[in-house]
Structure formats: C-alpha cells, structure tokens
Amino acid sequence: MDKNNFISIVIKLGKVDRRVIFLLIAVVVLLPLLFPIGLPIRATDTTQRSFNAVDALGQGDKLLLSFEYGPSTKPEIHPMAEAVLHHAFSKGMKVYIVCLWPDGQFMAIDALNAIAPQYNAVYGEDYVLLGFRPGGEAVVKGITSNLRKLYTVDYQNTLVESIPMMQGVNSLADFKLIFSFSAGYPGTVEWVQYGSDPTGVPMSTGTASIQVNEIIPYENAGQLRGVIAGMPGAAEYEALIGKKGLGTSGMDAQSIAHLVIVLFIIFGNITYFLERRRSEKKY
Amino acid sequence: MYTTEIIGAWFAVFLTLAIFSFLYKDNPFYKAAEHLFVGVSAGYWASTFFWTQIQPNLFGRLWPKLTEEPSGIKAAWYGIYDFFGWFHEGIFPGGGIDKGHELNLFYLIPFLLGIFMLLRLSRKLGWLARWSMAYVVGLAAGLRLYGFLNSNILAQVRGSALSLFDGWGTAINSIIIIVGTLTGLFYFFFSKEHTGVFGKISRVGIWFLMVSFGAAFGFAVMGRISLLIGRFYDLIQFSGSQYYHATYWLLALIVIILGFQAFRERGRSTEEA
Q1: Average pLDDT for residues B172-185, to the nearest whole number?
Q2: Is there a contact between B44 and A254 if contact means CB atoms under 8 Å apart?
C-alpha cells in the first residue's frame, strides 16, 4: 500500500458515521460492566480533604447533609451520598438532611433506606430528613438564620418539636459540618455564599463532574474543605472508607471509555490535519 | 407474578431505550419519551411545590390549627377557610392546618402576589403580575448581590493572594493562579485594543482560558459517561429473569419497529425516484 492510499483510508475513517462511534462507546462502556477488570483507585487530594473533614467529626456531632440532585445525576452523586452516610453512621454522628431540590428528597430516602439499617440507626434519634423546601438560596439563608421557622415539620409531616434529635438545633451555627451533594443550582455555590461563608461553619461537597470546574476555586480559596468530583471521586471516597459501591464498580468502564474518547480525539485531529494538507496541495 | 416493581422496570427500560433510539435518528419512540418526561416533570414539580410550601407554609400560617373556638373577626376568617374546605378537605382540613405555625396575616402579601402571578394568564388583569415579578427580581438581586460580593469577590481575591512561604509546590501554584487570574482579566478588558504588550498579556490569558475550557470539557465527558454507566446498570439489572428479560424483549421490539420503518421509508424513496 503506498503512502497516498494509506492517507486516503485514514481520511475516510475520519469521516465514519457518528452512529458507529456511539456504538463503539456503548460497547466499551458495557464490556467492563459485564467483565470487571478492577483497575486501581487512588484518592486525589480533594477527595482526601473531604474525607478528612467528615472524619474529623466524632460521636454525637451534628452533620448537615443537603441533597441537591435527581435521577439525572444519580449515577454520579448517589454513590458519594451513600459513602458519606456510611462514614457518618459508622462514627455515630447525628445526621440532619435537607433538600434544595424536590427530587433530592427521594434520593435521600433511597440512600437512607439502603444505609441506615446497616448501622441500626433510628429515625429521629440518629438521623432526620427535614425534606424539600423551594426557594434555593432563600432556603439556605432561612436555615442560616432560623431553621425552626423554615422547618416546622419533617418530610413525613411530623412536628419538628417532637423529634428528639431536633432539640437544641435552631440554626446553621449549631452544626459542625455542612456537606452538600450538588448537581447544579441551587447547590454547593449557594451553600457557600449564604451558609458556610457568613456563619463560618466548615463545608465540604460532592458534585456532578460538570460542576467541578465551577466549584474548585472555592476549594482553592479555602471556602470548601475538599470536593468529591463525580463518579471517580465517589469511587475514591469508597476506597477511603473501605466500602466498595456503585462508584467503584463503574470506574473500569469510566477509565476505558475515557481512553477510547482520547484516542478518537487524537485520530480526529490527525485526519483533520491530513485532509487540510491534502486540500492545500490541490490548490 | 406481575408486581408494580416489574411493571416499573419494563417502563424504565422502555423509556431508556426510547431515549437512546435518538442516537440512531429522531423517531416516535424518542418523541413519546421526551413529551412524557416534560409533562411528568412539570406536574411533579407543581405538585411538590404545592404540598411542601404553599399548603404547609402559606395556608398553614394563614389558617393554623385552632386551639380554641374562634370568635369575632377570627371566626369570620375561619369561615372563609371552611368555605375552601368545602371544595377540598385534603388541602383545608377541618379546624385549621396543623404544621406547627401560628396565625400570621402578613402572609396575605405573598398569597396576593402569588395570585397576581397567576393573573398573567388574563388579558385584562395580566399587568398585576408585574408587581409579583418586581418583588421576585428585587429580592433575587438583593440576595445575590450580597452572596457574590462576599464569597465570589472578597473571598476569591483573598484566596488568590500570593503564598510564597508554604513550600515550593504552594508557591508555584500561587504564582500560576495569580498569573492566570490577571491575564484572564486582561483578556476581558475590551476598552483598549489588544495590541503590543497588552495584546501579549491577554494572549497568555487566552491560554489559561483554553486550559480551563479543556478541563470543563473533560469533566463534561466524565459526567456523561457516568450517566451512561448508570443507565447501563439498570438495563443489565432489568435484563435478568426476575424481570422477565425486559431489556432483551424491548430492545428487540424497538429495533424491529425502527428497522421496519427504515425499510418502508427506503422503499418509498426508491418508488419516488
């Protein structure tokens, strides 16, 4: 095969129907899910700092979790929510949950149903789900100033006054740590702006990959103590607490898919330059 | 045994595959799933907002549960409530709403503003919605101004300060951050032509921006692949015998119907030619 023929074939491959690429991506994601490889997972600094922030809390310390995601980002954020709940219940913390997204309430119920029974955690004594309130940053501001005014009942319409672990909890300042599981607005940014920064209550977060670029500056500036970034972050947190979950099992597929996409990008660029050089020669 | 879980699994598989079918081309399966998604989302949000905010926090403050028999104006006020209760006892249960609130008539203002917002649908009274919008815009602007000023300007400026004495790694990171921030800001300064030294500095800013866009693209890809993994998990799970192999059956059905449609379309275009 001469050089020109080879270049023609490469250029032709570069113009392959996009549906072929979709199919290839589907295959490289599916295969590692069916036949796991077990690639090693090492915690990055940001995940480690998130872990340290939660780990610094002890028995009976009040941890505020905020669920701001829905089914559309569940594969990324739910594993980290479950991992943090494992961590909190294993250390005997008091877990308080609020939701800035309506779907967040169902995600929280799902995560609690999966994790709380493993530690014999009792509703109202070890954890409480205050539920969803609409209003975004106004809700965060409300929790910061007077939580009792905003939440008079929990998600099951039980009066907050009658819940034992709500005694002495009146505002954000009563918590040791805020942890937001966020997929967008309202989410981590609003918690930083109207919750953590004004009160000085330390905060950490787990976010969808798409949001990481927006969140990292807050981490660099010390406004956040660590960030769990997407599914890889969840897998790293699972490795740190020693509990393999959905994050870990998705990492093989994630890594291989990334490799294939990188190869596609390189190949696409090569064909682009070859085609451009050929057309320059023509004229 | 067809339980709700199995029916739900079949439904979830069908909708997932219907959305995926768009990768082949736009088709009725995709359209149906898309419309269903939009409708269900809107209904779900409206219902959740009503039952988590309007009923407990608005009506609950205007007509809280009575602890004693009302008299005078209060009796008349609860007479209105009883009238509403005649239409829907679930929303307005007898004796007031027990959500731990006390009577606060100031909440008539948001109640009225809410009604004004709905009047947008009326041609004659639509102008009243402007009052509600003005309130929302003013509130949001005031609230956001404080948050951004404190957390996004002051704290970020403090965070990008040079830290030269905490080890080499931190010092180099600090220099990169400050150079990136300053050159990026230079790039967005449009009152002076980007030539000479100014142009060179703003060009460095472009490089930093490109690195940032690259990182954003990488994270976006990572996020999308994670979502794909999530859907594949469910498809794998629902392909099991306990779900009567929902994934296989529905995949075959959709492929056959789309294949048949493509075959018919090709036949038609050949005839026309």
Answers
A1: 90
A2: no
